[in-house]
Amino acid sequence: MKRHCIKIKEATMWYFSWILGVLLACSFGIINALWLEHTDAVDQDSIK
C-alpha cells in the first residue's frame, strides 16, 4: 500500500513539472510574439 502511494506521488510531481514547462514555453512564445509586433510597429512609425 505504501509503495503504491509513493508511485502516485512521483507521477503527480512529474506531470506537475511537465505542465509547468509547457506553460513556460507557451508564455515565452506569447511574449516573443508581442515583442515582435511592438518592434514592427515602432519600425513602421520611424519610416513615416
TrEMBL record:
The keyword Transmembrane helix applies. Keywords: Membrane, Transmembrane, Transmembrane helix. The chain crosses the membrane at residues 12-35. The keyword Transmembrane helix applies. It holds the Pfam family YbgT_YccB. This is Cyd operon protein YbgT. It comes from Candidatus Enterovibrio escicola.
